[in-house]
Amino acid sequence: MTAIHTKLPPLGALGPFIALVCACAFFATQSERFLTLQNFSLILQQVMVVGTIAIGQTLIILTAGIDLSCGMVMALGAIVMTKTAADHGLSAPVAFALGMAVTTLFGLINGLLVTKAKLPPFIVTLGTLNIAFAITQLYSGSQTITEVPAGLTWLGESFRIGSAHILYGVVLMLALYLITWLYLRETAPGRHIYAVGNNPEATRLTGISTDKVLLGVYLMAGVFYGIASLLSVARIGAGDPNAGQTENLDAITAVVLGGTSLFGGRGVVLGTLVGALIVGVFRNGLTLMGVSSVYQILVTGILVILAVLTDQMSRKGVR
Questions:
Q1: Which site among 99, 109, 216, 286 is 20 to 30 Å from 115 CA-CA?
Q2: What is the CATH number of domain 41-309?
Q3: Confidence of residue 12 (pLDDT cuts 50, 70, 90)
């Protein structure tokens, strides 16, 4: 019995999964449509973009940072991809590369300001959020780009599993979570991210360059935002300059609900996926119940506060 117990994850790590199961069980009693493959595939489609952004957000929060610019950087990447393809006739791969370059550049700028200028991540990313928003509106002329080549939307196509239609973009998101989980768990650079979040000074004294770790984290986050840009274009079939205005808070919500500590150094990226699904399940379930979207936002806010409160209490318990 003891041997089995030692192999099980701690209850704190299972908390988000238990919350997801309980939420599913509750909404299953409220709507007969909830427990259908078609509905679950819809939930995955709805969390696809935010879930990908949340991977980058998880990496940053693991280092005790935060990125408020992620949603608008994603929107800017989507506008660059679609507008360069529509206005200049660039091929889909070239347009995607340009969008990725822009989001990665913003990740680099955030990382340099945090590591070299020693500015707080909150202030840095608040500034780049506004910069990305302004550039997006100016470059797009505040107009939605609808003439999108098929190469930028193929991830929005689907395949059937029973009665459900699964988007290829959802498969990509799940693959990214698996790769990131393996990276954090099995590689030295991945473990360095946890070390920096736990105690940056002690990590520096062991010979690890904390600045390089942080810069790498913000760069990787920029890459994930670029992939999320492509998924956003694929999902709606257009470049929307007004997208991304709430995705930053949604991504942070997913990370927190997934059990990653806002104080850094503790969390599992797969928990972020569960956190994103919790938000998706609540919004989907409340919609099926006919509950107003205002109450959906209210419930999400309560969940975030409870998750942060639980994290703080668990930290005090460890001490």
A1: 99
A2: 1.10.3470
A3: low
Q: Tell me the residue type at 212.
A: K
The sign of the torsion formed by the CA atoms of 113, 114, 115, 116 equals: positive
279-319 residue pLDDT tens:
999 999 999 999 888 888 888 788 888 877 877 776 665 55
Question: Residues 227-256: pLDDT tens digits?
Answer: 999 999 999 999 999 998 889 989 999 999
Instruction: With CA atoms as reference, report the closest residue to 278 among 241, 253, 308.
Output: 253
Q: Would you call 89 helix, strand, or coil by DSSP?
A: coil
d(CA 200, CA 209): 9
Residue in 128, 133, 14 with CA at minimum distance from that of residue 79:
133
Q: CA angle at residue 250 from 249 to 256, to 5 degrees?
A: 85
> What is the Cα–Cα distance from 258 to 252, expressed in whole angstroms?
10
Domain ranges in the chain? Answer: 41-309
- The Cα–Cα gap between 183 and 297 comes to 33
Residue with tokens 């238990």: 18
Contact 52, 233 (CB under 8 A): no
- d(Cα 221, Cα 103) in Å, to the nearest integer? 9
Helices (H), the chain: 2-7, 11-30, 37-62, 70-88, 92-115, 121-140, 168-186, 188-198, 200-205, 210-236, 247-257, 269-288, 293-318
Residue indicated by tokens 């939930």: 43
Find, among 67, 157, 163, 179, the residue nearest to 113 by Cα: 67
Instruction: Write b or e for each residue in 166-190: b if 16 or more Cβ atoms lie within 10 A of its Cβ, otherwise e.
Output: bbebbebbeebbeebbebbeeeeeb
Helix (H) or strand (E) holding 159: strand 158-161
